[in-house]
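Q: What residues go here?
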């Protein structure tokens, strides 16, 4: 298991929507090391990667979404389906992995990347119209949702530098069974699964935890 690519995006206009703030979704692979650190709370902090733009801090970035990871294997599957190349970083991911089941990771699972950085899985990526416009694929939000392999957001436990080629070691796996894929289904297509997310405990993304508690209060 390793990091295939570390990707950083600069702020660009969003010509395909009326988004006023621009977007940093078009991330490019970096040649050298990139510093990773907790960016601060949502609404204040942006990306956990130095030099990586987060334009809409209301919805993106912050400590619980400091780093976004996608498996190269998932990009390869989409390449075959879409009939077009998808370079690493194309999905807006900061880290493109190889040999790691990212969407099968457990909420609260911890990865050591290289010799310094430790990240903790918090949630799955919910697709948006900016993502759809960036890919230029019709019905992309629906298709991505139906696939159910969203990639993982992670918080920074131990800061440091990462680079392409760094090994990824899973240093902690929780006892529960809440994977990123299950989290994603519960928040999108199978909301009856939401109570199961509570077994992830404090590792669960705080916004998801609030949504789950509201669901349980309403439906039991």
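A:
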């Amino acid at each position: 298991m390793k990091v295939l690519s570390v990707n950083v995006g600069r702020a660009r206009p969003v010509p395909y929507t009326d988004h006023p703030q621009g977007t940093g979704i078009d991330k490019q692979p970096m040649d050298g090391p990139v510093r990773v650190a907790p960016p601060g709370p949502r609404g204040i902090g942006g990306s956990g990667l130095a030099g990586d733009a987060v334009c809409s801090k209301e919805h993106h970035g912050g400590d619980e979404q400091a780093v976004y990871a996608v498996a190269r294997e998932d990009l390869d599957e989409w390449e075959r389906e879409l009939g077009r190349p998808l370079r690493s970083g194309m999905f807006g991911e900061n880290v493109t992995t190889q040999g790691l089941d990212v969407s099968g990771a457990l909420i609260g699972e911890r990865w050591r990347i290289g010799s310094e950085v430790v990240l903790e899985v918090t949630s799955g990526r919910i697709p948006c119209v900016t993502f759809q416009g960036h890919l230029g694929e019709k019905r992309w939000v629906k298709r991505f949702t139906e696939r159910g392999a969203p990639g993982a957001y992670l918080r920074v436990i131990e800061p440091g530098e990462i680079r392409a080629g760094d090994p990824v070691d899973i240093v902690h796996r929780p006892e529960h069974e809440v994977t990123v894929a299950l989290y994603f289904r519960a928040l999108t297509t199978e909301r009856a699964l939401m109570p199961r997310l509570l077994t992830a405990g404090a590792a669960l993304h705080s916004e998801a935890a609030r949504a789950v508690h509201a669901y349980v209060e309403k439906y039991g």
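A: Context that may help when evaluating the design: The radius of gyration is 16 Å. Residues 114 and 166 are 5 Å apart (CA to CA).
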